[in-house]
Write a structure and sequence with these properties.
- Pathway: Carbohydrate degradation; pentose phosphate pathway; D-xylulose 5-phosphate from D-ribulose 5-phosphate (non-oxidative stage): step 1/1.
- It comes from Anopheles minimus.
- One of its GO terms (molecular function) is metal ion binding.
- The chain is α/β, with parallel strands linked by helices.
- The chain has a single domain, classed as TIM Barrel, CATH 3.20.20.
- The chain contains 10 helices and 11 strands.
């Protein structure tokens, strides 16, 4: 028997053992039924406690030594690697694409890879990134507002988790309608496209709103996060922390990662107080 489960975004209780006829819960087409079955794994999960996770961004690393730099970050305690992919259109800069990610995966077998897709056409790169060994595909909703659910579906079908990212100028309410299809929401705390920018503290109400409305949702912040700003992020409710310059250029990477994680875990344990 499958025990009752809770949709970790809406808080709705479901008894999956009672679902015997998927078609009876959907419209006449077959696609919704298939999507409902898929949701049993991705959406209808037992509520798990939030955990603090630190994902260094390699944007400011020495990309000529990408493998060595990444191994060093993981050895120093990173929980995952945050890989910034830029297309020169959605943001003005260019970084790297799936061939580089695949080469890195061939060197690093077990680490969790999240790609932050700062691209105009996120649909284009879903299959290549899945083939490259990416576990989470985080894309910006701004260029694909009309097709976000479809993109989410394709990402899940490719075997990856979905992250939805919003720029500083995008209202948090814009992402709300898509959260049930996502595994994580990324709130940018700088304008995407450049490393080393100043942290935007006025983004914290977005994080707080998400945490208040979705208590078990993974919420990530990215941009200008470091020892001097982590407390604002953790108290607002972020549990996934992307830090680039603060970690990459630290004399003691392990100490910075540890301090960031401790701040977030402490906030989680105290309910953000």
């Amino acid at each position: 028997r499958i025990s009752p489960t809770i949709c970790h975004r809406s808080g709705t209780l479901f008894d999956l053992a009672a679902i015997t006829d998927h078609k009876s819960l959907t419209r006449s087409t077959t696609r919704p039924a298939v999507r409902l079955i898929a949701c049993r794994k991705e959406t209808f999960t037992k509520m798990a406690p939030l955990s603090a996770r630190i994902g260094p961004s390699i944007l400011n690393a020495d990309l000529s030594q990408l493998h060595e730099e990444s191994e060093k970050l993981l050895a120093n305690g990173a929980d995952y690697l945050h890989l910034d992919v830029m297309d020169g259109t959605f943001v003005p800069n260019l970084t790297f694409g799936h061939p580089v990610v695949k080469c890195l995966r061939n060197k690093i077998k077990d680490a969790f890879f999240e790609t932050h897709m700062m691209v105009q056409n996120p649909q284009q790169w879903i299959e290549p990134m899945a083939d490259a060994g990416v576990q989470q595909y985080t894309f910006h909703i701004e260029p694909v507002l009309e097709t976000v659910p479809e993109v989410c579906r394709k990402v899940h079908e490719a075997g990856m988790k979905v992250g939805l990212a919003i720029k500083p100028g995008t209202a948090v309410e814009m992402v709300q309608q898509y959260i049930d299809a996502a595994d994580m929401v990324l709130v940018m705390t700088v304008e995407p496209g450049f490393g080393g920018q100043k942290f935007m503290a006025d983004m914290m109400p977005k994080v707080q709103w998400l945490r208040d409305h979705y208590p078990s949702l993974d919420i990530e912040v990215d941009g200008g996060v470091g020892p001097g700003t982590i407390e604002q992020c953790s108290k607002a409710g972020a549990n996934m922390i992307v830090a680039g310059t603060a970690i990459i250029r630290a004399d003691d990477q392990a100490a910075v990662i540890r301090d960031l994680r401790n701040s977030v875990q402490s906030a989680i344990n105290s309910g953000g107080k």
